[in-house]
Amino acid sequence: MPDRASPAPPTSRRDFLRKGATAAVALPAVMSLAGCSGSKAVAAPAADTTRAAASPPSEPTAREKADAMDAMHEKGVKAFPARTEGKGNQPLAPRLEKGVKVYELTAEEIDWEVEPGRKVRAWAYNGQVPGPQIRVREGDRVRVKLMNQLSQSTAIHFHGLELPNDQDGVPFITQPPVKPGEGYTYEFTVPNAGSHMYHSHHNAAIQVGNGLLGAFIVEPRRPLAAHKADVDYVMVLNDGAHGYTLNGKGFPATEPVVCAQGQTVRLRFMNEGMMIHPMHLHGMHMTVIAKDGWDQPAPWKCDTLNIAPGERWDVLVKATNPGTWAFHCHILPHAESEHGMYGMVTALVVKPATA
Amino acid sequence: MPDRASPAPPTSRRDFLRKGATAAVALPAVMSLAGCSGSKAVAAPAADTTRAAASPPSEPTAREKADAMDAMHEKGVKAFPARTEGKGNQPLAPRLEKGVKVYELTAEEIDWEVEPGRKVRAWAYNGQVPGPQIRVREGDRVRVKLMNQLSQSTAIHFHGLELPNDQDGVPFITQPPVKPGEGYTYEFTVPNAGSHMYHSHHNAAIQVGNGLLGAFIVEPRRPLAAHKADVDYVMVLNDGAHGYTLNGKGFPATEPVVCAQGQTVRLRFMNEGMMIHPMHLHGMHMTVIAKDGWDQPAPWKCDTLNIAPGERWDVLVKATNPGTWAFHCHILPHAESEHGMYGMVTALVVKPATA
Amino acid sequence: MPDRASPAPPTSRRDFLRKGATAAVALPAVMSLAGCSGSKAVAAPAADTTRAAASPPSEPTAREKADAMDAMHEKGVKAFPARTEGKGNQPLAPRLEKGVKVYELTAEEIDWEVEPGRKVRAWAYNGQVPGPQIRVREGDRVRVKLMNQLSQSTAIHFHGLELPNDQDGVPFITQPPVKPGEGYTYEFTVPNAGSHMYHSHHNAAIQVGNGLLGAFIVEPRRPLAAHKADVDYVMVLNDGAHGYTLNGKGFPATEPVVCAQGQTVRLRFMNEGMMIHPMHLHGMHMTVIAKDGWDQPAPWKCDTLNIAPGERWDVLVKATNPGTWAFHCHILPHAESEHGMYGMVTALVVKPATA
């Protein structure tokens, strides 16, 4: 796996801080963060950090350094969920043509704001990273019209769908590549339920890494009662050209998952990156119900779920515990730097039943 | 995990292309690749790639660049399965001595062709990478005679077999190292069924990385009817000194798994490398039946199976879907570069029942 | 994942060797290593290594080089388990205050000896890496008093415990950061059984990487008979600033797990690092009974268990096979270099029933 430098946001946050910016950051209504009044803080034997008190004014004391670091961390948390331009993974409504659900996907190069102020070049479907979420039902007839506005050829593989071979989207094995400026149409009857993906299968290490990917969810014809959920959330993990992201954004621009106490949340994790990401939920456990769209014969519980590239895991969370819960990749350098949390961090917000 | 550069083949393929080589590449009979006639291609609104039409002749247009890239990709696919010198993981017939199955393994340095034209130095058993496949039955009496023709000491650990301690192959814990020019004999009654491995356990990061490894398959005394398979295929994954390989070869020199429609294929994945490799099968799912040789109590389904170093996973594939199906590690840089697919890519070829 | 150089010990071991150190190393009584008499060694056709016999005396022959390498390997194994200063993961007895179990944890910077002679700077709880092991029972009332003697702010997250939100330990989300020289008190009723962890959740990539972590074991109110074990061993894996470690030490300073033949050993793996570590046990298999503290509905067997950052896996080993068994991470560069075994290597020592 490639050695990757930290994405840019911590630096820009530091610059922001240095310039003494004081822009007010609105606290989102859904979040009830701790008062941070320090009421539980108690005096402890003084560390050697107090010795720095006699330093000349140009040298910050240890406490001042700690305060400066904490301020950066606080700013990140308080900015969450930060507004950025563009939102990926949005439901795409089909056009109905004689009983066929028709989806149009245009692959093109765009600017994409990963965190506030950090814009990258992305290769995107319909201007979104991840591409728009396609959600159909087992047995549906589906037509996907790809338009290639990139400067390279491309193709779409429907990862997880057990399609006829000529719809599998692998250039020179199942179809010709789709040239720049040209289009290609896939059409099939959706064969198997589950959390699947669509992405480029041509020069894919580059094209998927740059953003040509999306979720393809297939509802089962006969859903299991045990899988009934109040909230159904798709979380696409990535670590390509745009840094560590959840649904195309890095913290604090990631989106919280919000529910009411007592509700059941279904999370559909999908890894479109090059590294594993063990996602850790605070405060509650997850019950693993499906792998790659196939029901697990014996659902099992965990709080940290290791998701490898290409894998999809579906879990249920019974939201019994009210509060704002950190939810992040537990490879800590994917989630935090000295400048604060960033990258693969979001929150599960469980609104109290009485609120 | 080490940061590794792409192996050489893409570069050599590019050179090949530059020199205008026109050597005909035979298409293997087992494969039925798409016609690539472009019959489904449709006109799309012109991308800015068309603007390049006025460029001076020395500057290739975007379309020309796309065509050049596609040609490299096509050449790789069309070359598959490419012929190379040497084949690893070949069944090794034992010599019978008074009811004992005797296997001789000579460790020596050799030249090994990973892909057409790319030769590397390898440390191999009997001139093969992976070493020859040993396949015995639970309860068999087995003698393995190691001859060390290397310039370093070595030893063999039978990974997964629950042997008496003095047959475990760990120098200075269970035996002395086997010096260059010397030999050593292991002898045991095979204790437990399953997909196991044998490899060096001395200076192993180097010795296994260079090729001193092989499959050790133990058939159960009483096979389960549910595990009956028409094809039984061992796939050893590696990422050591020779780059990303399946059974010692990189695409397009990897071997396709071939079966007839309706047959059941048993795949035995083994990771002898330093990285995870989530293997993704197109077109059909895999049912996971064993881990490290031990039956799974509740077999489960997936299309992407994450295999960590030292692990073995057995799966069954019911080959219902005819065609040539891409089958590759889903860490995309292990499978594709801008020059085309390479490394950990092969295919499952399901021949139509009527063919 | 970061590209990391080998930790220092191999080099220092080499220096040690060069200087002709001859310090006697006591063999631990619990270990019964092979005689290494070479009685099974047999003559084999001479390799080209014999040709080196005519080399001038200043050039070592291949055999001399092999002997020198083997001597380094032997020295490491014979030194195991090597004595070092400091021992982490030691049980911490609570002080009882009106029915509340009170634990005091002081975070401070210390020197920590990872292997004989290799000292590093560590950030530790109570002078230990990992911090002291806290072991309580489901339903216990617990108070944890943190004293921060570091030069940075910090906080404790109880990873895996389903606590009220304000005890979750995430600065600016559930509490203010605990400043240098200050303290903070957590108090809760232990909600769920299992193998959990506590660690910093502030600047955590650095603080946990430097050692601010420990095991938090919760015994169930009603233990399952099937989980009864004679030995209960917590193994914390790490790969941060101190190199590859098991319970804060690298081989040969790691601690063997010791039991008598016929006993059942419960191992509780916890990964506090940034990389996966597939732990491989020689000679016997492991039955996986819990994930992140939650019982597995269908326990399964393996000999190599892949443990990702943040995960905890509990296994049972029925110690049927007497001997000293290598037990190590199977990412081989985490376990062995040309200078011998190091890092994430220990042994399961099964003392014969008759001994």
Instruction: Determine the N-to-C terminus distance of chain A.
Output: 46 Å
Shape of chain A: globular
Specify which chain pair forms the largest interface: A-B, 61 and 61 residues
Beta strands of chain A, count: 23
Strands across the major sheet of chain A, in which order? 12-11-14-19-16-17
| H and E order of chain A | HEHEEEEEEEEHEEEEEEEEEEEEEE
Task: Specify the helix fraction band of chain A.
Answer: under 10%
Strand content of chain A: 35-45%
Report the mean per-residue pLDDT of chain A as an integer.
88
**Multimeric state:** homotrimer
Count every helix of chain A, treating DSSP H or I runs of 4 or more residues as helices.
3
Report the biggest beta sheet of chain A as strand number plus sense, adding barrel if it closes: 6 strands, mixed
Description:
The structure is a homotrimer of 355-residue chains. The termini of chain A are far apart. Chain A is built from 3 helices and 23 strands. Chain A has a 6-stranded mixed β-sheet with strand order 12-11-14-19-16-17, with no helix packed on it. In chain A, strands 2, 3, 4, 6 and 8 form a 5-stranded mixed β-sheet that branches. Chain A has a 5-stranded mixed β-sheet with strand order 13-23-20-15-18, with no helix packed on it. In chain A, β16 and β17 form a beta hairpin. Chain A is mainly beta. Chains A and B meet through β8, α3 and β17 of A and β1, α2, β17, β20 and β21 of B. β1 of chain A pairs antiparallel with β8 of chain C.
Task: Give short descriptive properties of this protein.
homotrimer; 355 residues; mainly beta; six-stranded mixed β-sheet; five-stranded mixed β-sheet; 23 strands; 9% helix
